[in-house]
Write a structure and sequence with these properties.
about 300 residues, acetylation (chains A, B, C, D), three-stranded antiparallel beta sheet, Glutaminase (chains A, B, C, D), glutaminase activity (chains A, B, C, D), EC 3.5.1.2 (chains A, B, C, D), homotetramer, alpha+beta, 2 domains, globular, five-stranded antiparallel beta sheet, hydrolase (chains A, B, C, D), Beta-lactamase
Amino acid sequence: MSDRLQQALADIDAELRASTDWGQVATYIPELARVPLHQFAIAVASAEGGLYSAGDADTGFSIQSISKVFALALALGRSGDQLWARVGREPSGSAFNSIVQLEYERGIPRNPFINAGAIVTTDEILAHRPPREALAELLTFVRTAADDDTIFINDAVAASERSHGHRNFALANFLYACGNLKNAPELTLGTYFHQCAIEMTARQLALAGRFLVAAPGMPRLISRARMRRLCAIMLTCGHYDASGDFAFRVGLPGKSGVGGGILAIVPGRASIAVWSPGLNANGNSKLGTEAMERLAAAMDWSVF
Amino acid sequence: MSDRLQQALADIDAELRASTDWGQVATYIPELARVPLHQFAIAVASAEGGLYSAGDADTGFSIQSISKVFALALALGRSGDQLWARVGREPSGSAFNSIVQLEYERGIPRNPFINAGAIVTTDEILAHRPPREALAELLTFVRTAADDDTIFINDAVAASERSHGHRNFALANFLYACGNLKNAPELTLGTYFHQCAIEMTARQLALAGRFLVAAPGMPRLISRARMRRLCAIMLTCGHYDASGDFAFRVGLPGKSGVGGGILAIVPGRASIAVWSPGLNANGNSKLGTEAMERLAAAMDWSVF
Amino acid sequence: MSDRLQQALADIDAELRASTDWGQVATYIPELARVPLHQFAIAVASAEGGLYSAGDADTGFSIQSISKVFALALALGRSGDQLWARVGREPSGSAFNSIVQLEYERGIPRNPFINAGAIVTTDEILAHRPPREALAELLTFVRTAADDDTIFINDAVAASERSHGHRNFALANFLYACGNLKNAPELTLGTYFHQCAIEMTARQLALAGRFLVAAPGMPRLISRARMRRLCAIMLTCGHYDASGDFAFRVGLPGKSGVGGGILAIVPGRASIAVWSPGLNANGNSKLGTEAMERLAAAMDWSVF
Amino acid sequence: MSDRLQQALADIDAELRASTDWGQVATYIPELARVPLHQFAIAVASAEGGLYSAGDADTGFSIQSISKVFALALALGRSGDQLWARVGREPSGSAFNSIVQLEYERGIPRNPFINAGAIVTTDEILAHRPPREALAELLTFVRTAADDDTIFINDAVAASERSHGHRNFALANFLYACGNLKNAPELTLGTYFHQCAIEMTARQLALAGRFLVAAPGMPRLISRARMRRLCAIMLTCGHYDASGDFAFRVGLPGKSGVGGGILAIVPGRASIAVWSPGLNANGNSKLGTEAMERLAAAMDWSVF
């Protein structure tokens, strides 16, 4: 497989670099807005142990909402199914930062991958330990999954996020008012902003995703049943109100971040990371989504 | 596999018949309301060609919304991707018959499996031929898939549905007012009500589902790429606002009907049909959902 | 007062005819779409018994939603306060034909002046007699109020409305599905479309509005308390989602129709009718609203 | 009038004190929750200069949202009609603290009397001077209107409000994220919480309301045109989603507060203040609303 896969990655990199429309870099925080647009990376960690990549695969980027996957795994490991009393697992049909659904459903976010649900997930982690330890534990989880201790949190990004995060402050205060936040909004958000500011390269992210691949030799951080459930939530909710489209076009569980990264899992076979900072109208990486679609087609990778 | 599978079906049948809570039979049309509650059937058509079943697997039931899967396959076959200009493919986050999303999104239903989207799909089929021929063609599709010419449309159910279908009349008239219905509401709904009134046994439905299994020997009615896409929509949208939960618990693309049936696909391996007329709060078969979860666990069947 | 009033009307007519923007004629039914745009009329029936007018005050127009005022008076006369179990009396904050609020509030329209609420009001009238008699009674009410037996229903408009009334069919079927329509949707809507097709001149409409003026010599068709309540609903709900703006700018209870007419009441003093078929973005007569604002200012007429 | 009015107040006080259901004291902040339930006051300042009262008319209470009337008058005085670019003047059809409408309408609150609109109004006042001066100016406005320099802001209530105001923090942060807050959420809310914590007796509030009465001898703080407009907004929006009901039952412009107070205006004739801390389901004073209805009926006071 390795030659075919390496060739596919090289082809995709070459084809996509010829794109005339690279999307728009996220502008909601200055630290993301200044990332150069014309960058693209793709990396695959295979179940056989190989790591393949093309493009800017050693350039670090802010994983942003992809961190919600790791945080959810951690929260479920600590709190188990009682987390589901605080957050649902249904697609929301709304934008990532919508507050409408939250009001109609009295403070229970639809799923852990919209911002409100991710804030609740982080708040649940904080029920077991203080912020500093919680972040350390999350970072340890990610580093263990990626087998790479150099992965770090970009404090400048976290600070930028805090100073421009009014919509998240709105969500957290609303959750608190509904009785679905255990810690002060500032405290939970402080942790949440740092979690989103984890920085990785595409190669690191592909390696970190291996804990969901379910194959011998992969890091075993959660049970097989939980892997399946996490993948199910990624497939139905991982791309906000474009989740259905990603399932339709790519057919793999995935999670995108506003920094331009996407992590996708081929159960039993591979972990894929792509990155390109330009976003499409739904807030997902434009070239990243296209790369996922091409790779899935080229390798005949689909869960369906 | 056959012995293990047959044993699993028998076990599930035995266990679920001991249930104290069988849910509630749908009451919105008289023909469904009078179906006896305590019935259960499960059937599996395997890629190897076997057909296995347990329970009331030769009792006919109204497939209702499961017909949307066949109608969508037919509409895509005729109209191709231009159907997607009229209906989305995102989970709706709403109940099956909600009109709210339709108003906010100006008459474009979220996906083909909520009622509004299914009405548009049927309307698209009618663009190519009159109602009688359209229904004949749909029935031929289903009979070919199941290799069974005895499958029929229950006219009494269709008539009952028409005389109690005010909410569907609301949806169709709203779609028409938004310019997203090509035929008169009465005409499209007349066809839609008949489509929903297709009657099958669990064994017949399991056989009919084989066109989505993607394995040698299965009826080949649509392309491999389209199979994957249909399965993707089933996984993200097949159980209304409990789609995420079905993906989480069962991990298979499925489609439920208010008659108590559920069709699920194990790509490359099997087509599963369950039936029990009692519904849960989301309008999906209560025992049927539980049976799917048990069977998927017992056979280690999951796309994830 | 009479000279000053007559002068004010003449001035307003002269000023508004110099307008460069007359709004847009309603296009949703052909019969309204073909009404010539550049028409304007204003008429005032004073408590002293005078009738003053300017412009095209003898040209007939379709009163459309202004009929809801007469229908509500009639329904309250027959059913009394039990009507309020079926329809609220709060501003809706939504467009006149929105179905969203109806779904969230389970089939109870916000007030009798949005379409859904008016359909329920007409349906309530039909609880007491068949459509033909109900329409005759409504017409008698209007003719008595105006003291003019030549007022009639324009059947061509009613027919046009029926054949293009899909959104109203959506509302009526939705109401029926919620259990808040006693008659078949077709029957209630048939009556409703005829009610909306009542035709009057501005002079006739000003006279017809006198039953709400509460002064000696005015036609006494309803109690003083009910006059106040009807005026209250007109002020808070009479201009759909521009009701607050009309109260702010004009300060009088009023009701607009999509045919370009507006009826306003100066309690104890006068009934005002204006008409100009061009509508503004909210679906209210553009010049009509401006004329009301100018007249209220010129005569120092405001309830506040 | 004075004897008849004094008798009416005494009768209402006597009748309402016999009530078995006094509603529920607001519980959302501790300072309000501990106010004894069985209190009632009514006071009227007439255009002729009299001040009449009954019940606990010298007991101070927190005016809460009634302060929005004074703040709006002040903001309009400073900014004029440009305020309307930031906030609408339509009834919202929603609860006082809803965030749903705000998201659908991109951060423009429906009117200045729902919380979001009041926060914007306060923010506008702060555009002209710092918080301390803004509060001083508002207090001066109120004291001048009431001709009473002892009116004060209860700092304990303001502090309690701040520590329990998560929903208001959600609204303010949301407004900020939409670009419709000029100051930091904490700063605007700090001012807003103090404004709401103004304390008055019913007699003081009746006197303070005289600036809206429009009669010789009344304090003239704003223009006649602006009085009318403020009254129009009070009538259409003054009681949240029960505004239509208040207009229907009482027929006067009014504004309620969660502390149990209501201020109503009889244009040209009187300013009425009632207070009873128990609220009804809509968050308006239960006995207060009843008292207003009885007084309006007894004195034949209605704008309609």
